[in-house]
Amino acid sequence: MSTAPAAKRKPTDYKSDLKPIWCPGCGDFGVLASLYRAFAELDLDPAKTVVVSGIGCSSRLPGFVSTYGFHSLHGRPLPVAMGVKLANPDLNVIAVGGDGDGFAIGAGHFPHAARRNIDITYLVMDNEIYGLTKGQVSPTSLTDQKAPSTPWGNLETPLNTLAFAVASGASFVARGASFNTKLLTELIVQAMEHKGFSYIDAMSPCVVFNNHQEEWKELVTDVSPDHDAADKVAAFDLALKGGFKLGILYREQRATLNDKYKALVEAAKDSNVEQMLEAFNARKGAAIGKPTV
Amino acid sequence: MRRQIEGARGVAESVAACRPQVVCAYPITPQTHIVEGLGVLVGTGALAGCEFVNVESEFAAMSVAIGASAAGARAYTATASQGLLFMSEALYNASGLGLPVVMTVANRAIGAPINIWNDHSDAMSQRDSGWIQLYAETSQEAIDLHVQAFRLAEEMSVPVMVCMDGFVLTHAFEPLEVPSQEDVDAFLPPFTPRQVLDPAEPVSIGAMVGPEAFTEVRYLAFHRQREALGRIPEIAADFAAAFGRDSGGLLHTYRCEDAQTIVLAMGSVLGTLKDTVDALRDEGIPIGVVGLTSFRPFPMAAVRAAVGGARTLIVLERAFSVGVGGIVSADVHMAVAGLDQRHHTVIAGLGGRPVTRVSLRRMLLDAEAGRLEPLTFLDLDRDLIDRELARVRARPRSGPAAENILRDVGVVGARPH
Prior knowledge:
The structure holds two protein chains of two kinds. Chain A is α/β, with parallel strands linked by helices. Chain A is 35% helix and 15% strand. Chain A has ten helices and eight strands. In chain A, helix 8 links the parallel strand 7 and strand 8. In chain A, helix 4 packs across helix 5. Chain A starts with 27 loop residues before the first helix and ends in a 10-residue tail after the last helix. By secondary structure, chain B is of the alpha/beta class. Chain B has two domains: 242 residues, Thiamin diphosphate (ThDP)-binding fold, Pyr/PP domains (Rossmann fold); 127 residues, Rossmann fold, CATH 3.40.50.920. Helix content of chain B is 42%, strand content 17%. Chain B has 15 helices and 15 strands. Chain B has a seven-stranded mixed beta sheet, sandwiched between helices. In chain B, strands 9-11-10-13-14-15 form a six-stranded mixed beta sheet, sandwiched between helices. In chain B, helix 7 links the parallel strand 6 and strand 7. The chains are: A alpha/beta, B alpha/beta.
């Protein structure tokens, strides 16, 4: 990609030569289609875009996109994506994966990526099941759900990933669905335009092992136009109340990790030892308390 | 009674007959059928008195098993490949504390490149973790080894890993006999922990130990495995007496009596190897096979006795140490130090590549003719390697090797930018 094409790119420009190997009817097709459209709408340069994934059905996604891709380890897309973004802040970085990858084995990375406000987008295809290993319960599976790994039904309470995201300090939190590609495309566009850590939970049914598609289609409604996405308490309230609200729950602008590093480097450039000492002394004795987010 | 069942199902039933009290489950191919099988047995009530715990990762699986074992429960889990590596820190913890957890490893390659198929790289990477490692040749042996493993682990207060080849054994259906509950109850006494978190007699587990005693505590782990060398054949003999099957032990020999050449290997490849050797024997070539069951502890004396008479010794391995070559070979060569033998290491069947009779025959005939290199990668496609090396020489940014090679073999049509 030495020269950028003059015409705006089309969704098909982002298709790789590899055909998705998902099951017919899998929600992930809708997510992939939305991703192609969002990339086209943003006219992303494939040579400046990286899709990072973990392990699972949905983590096969980078192979189907003509941008750079990184199929990493189970649960590790966020730290890999963070490494990519820190090393080269000019790249558009999007991490993708499933609910098992992101919220079981890899859950430890999520709050830290969120609170650091690293400027990446994390798109989770949430099917409330482990699909690749054929249908065991995941952290977002419903209580009492029967699966091969839950002989008496799932005894656990599902993780509320939206509330988790808001509580962890994600600066953009939204929910979309694979069966509403128009909205999901818009959400991906906005998430990628957002400066900071953006999280999208994409409801994406596993039609083989946990098919909630028809039920979900009936249950979803849009986030009310009256909802103030800048109001964190309202966002948390919405996240706790209902699982089927599609749209942006929360959005705030605050400095990204890259911004802060950059500022630090700039400040250091113009600084000398006396100034540093002065700054250090000024901070001495300052009250130390829990930061408010 | 023999039934036509999947290897994984047989292992699940065998483990259930050992009455585990805590089973930790996290899905990973090709192990998943085993814990799912146990889930069904718990669900139907066939396995009573067992807590079946779904955890969030393999690291949690082993950690829960450690906690359960410390609380005095018979604890079991199963994993493979990346999962085993992810639990590595906890593996050392279990063995260092002397907690007798039993675990099945459905052997699978480790990435990158990601690969779900069978080889021994996963278990080999935990060679020094302090776990006993027993390798099953057949699904029936895997079934039998689990019954022996619980007894061995609990007697010695050492965790035991039963390794069975992923897919080849875990997913194959064949007539298998699962020991009956009565027979297992007679063979395996209830778990009497050497250490236990008991409110009536409080202890703490996990003390920090400095230079003053670290060597001694670690030496005891070594000592326990050395003791296990003696117990493994005794338990196998007890098992044979009780169940009528010759499973387990330190190693098995096949047609080694007058063998000029002996091939040593582990796991399911032994079947193909024996068939190949039978054909060569028919042609008058005196070859024998040694199947190693106990890799940790490593039976130095038994290996020396089994292979010492051969002029040529070939170690066939399903994994390798990058930068060296053989892993099993290194131990075998220690066992035969000083003997007048030619030694060969053959790395075969990585990432699920079939180890065929044709390739084994060619390799064995090469060995007979003195043409076999000291280190050989069986069926290595030299042309693919040369093409990638040429790319590396031609361009500083030659790209990811795996993707390049997949493009060469036509698996991936993706174009580079």
